[in-house]
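Let's see one such:

===
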Amino acid sequence: MRALARIGGIGMAAALVLQPGMATAQTLSPDQQRFFDLYKELVETNTTLSSGSCTQASAQIATRLKAVGYTDQDITLFSVPDHPKDGGIVVVLPGRDKALKPMLLLGHLDVVEAKREDWIRDPFKLTEEDGYYYSRGTVDDKGMSAIWADSMIRFKTDGYKPKRTIKLALTCGEETTFAWNGAQWLAANKPDLIAAEFVLNEGGGGRSDAKGKPEVLAIQVGEKAAQNYTFATTNPGGHSSQPVPDNAIYELADAIEAVRGYEFPIKFTDTTRAFFSATAQSAPGPMGDAIKRLLANPNDVEADKIVSRDKTMHSTLRTTCVATLLAAGHAENALPQRATANINCRVFPGETVEATLAKLTELAGPRVKVTMNMPVRPTAVPPPLDPKILGPARAIAAKHFPGVPMLPLMSTGATDGIFFQAIGIPVYGVPGIFVDPDFNGIHGLNERIRVKSLYDGRAYLYDLVKAYAG
């Protein structure tokens, strides 16, 4: 759920919001208790790459689905022999109108690594404390994955017969670039199974203030492509007592400095233009004026300097590349024979990873070898600002979160949605689950979610899916 971090940069737009005081914590209803049982089981099932099993988590969800009437024909559990613990699940609830294309609910079961010695609480035991649920994955992405699975269960137990077929895909491998990726595998090997008119995914959400008052909702409409590159320099080396200017580390450092000093050109999609237009209306003084100038002229260097002081704004405007890993030398008393750096790029929708490679090669210079790391991500395709998607999201939000504005957002991060976009299915990161200004420890220590945020998000997303499904 990396895209939620982007909401942190739109506090200016969120400043428009005033909402009545929030309700106090409530006792769980029987319906909510059933959801909690599913959520707790999922969160407490270790699904890290190092020692966990998404296959186990998928099987547990399948058991719950079968208990309410889903059949083996409705449920597909999948994995591959080389990665037996990285399995996933696809579930289908047939619709009444076969002329309507299905919709797909997407979530990922895997979580970022968490070491017990680093955490205050056991990262794989759900703990309720001070109005929060604590554990790895409480937000990213087991909150939404549990809501999707619970919604499919509720549809069956409520006797709901959707007009449009509803599909659910819960996969593994989203959090680790080099891991086997279930979403990518489904898109490449089982496109008919997950075929849909659109996908609802993580990446949207909402931001609340430090006291839990909702400030702004975001619907993700597009994301960047994440791609890693390697810079490598080599040299015969020698004894460090006789240094020479021809040094692998210096050459690598010069190349990294060139990347640091380069700004990719500003681009706009329909989504980012809408986002900046809304932000410009509420941003104070110089910032608002600078945004308006950039919208009129993306080559306005002075306006760019003002807007790009905000790191979120800066990253939303363009492709970005940054050095993230270094390795050099083989002995403390020897001139380095080899130096390498990882350059992590977030490629703007519509731009290719190959074009980014060409620019990096130009910046690095002839003494540095630049290669594109596997896996190579597909080109990010910006989905349309479709009224059939945005309209219901806003209408349902007005009932659940009255007075809270909703902004379209392009994620500067990346999700598994890119694999579905690559086969022609637009992907939208849904709003509804609010996080705090500090991002709730997602990917870090002591991940948590407000109890109220989880249940409010569950209620909103259930109604949203029904609005789309008919």
Notes: Residues 9-25 have pLDDT under 50 and may be disordered.
